Amino acid sequence: MAKRASAIAMALLLGAACTPTVTPGPAPFDASQYPAIRLQVGSIEVANAARMPPEMGFIARQRSERLVQEAQAFLRTRLVAVGGTDFARATVEEASLVERPRPTGTGYVARATEPDWEMVGVLALKVAVIDGLGIELAFATSRVEIRRTISQRASVEAKENFARTIINDLLAASSRELETSIDQNLADRKAG
Question: How far apart are CA 102 and CA 177, in angstroms?
């Protein structure tokens, strides 16, 4: 009887150990947690000038396009036109999120102990004030790059969660850097 009970307990433990666990990934970036940057312009146009290299793989392209879409949504939420004769153009200049081999140190120990894979994200934004003739009067920019090591053998779910975290961190860092640049370069266009 004891053998049978322990066999059942062992079977239940093995079954529980083999059951996949669904862990929720990080939530998308919430730009509404930041106060709006109010600009004295008639309107704000959001554009994308980021170009994807033709040799970029499917997964990197998909992640990079997601970064572009979320950066554009971020710009639409964070920048607010409060009226004026000019208009502003907020542009995603560069956006990429790729996995690639990471250079390691020389020697056997370095190659055996250092991580050999990384995920690199880059996000560059530009906000330009443009007059009625299409002449750029002033602009503010930000460019953020984040590099983090990741196991090449990580699961698809783990890599997607990792990519989501980097996208969120890129948007948060870009938000701070862009606001600082606007304070320095577009101070006369900023509304209280």
Answer: 27
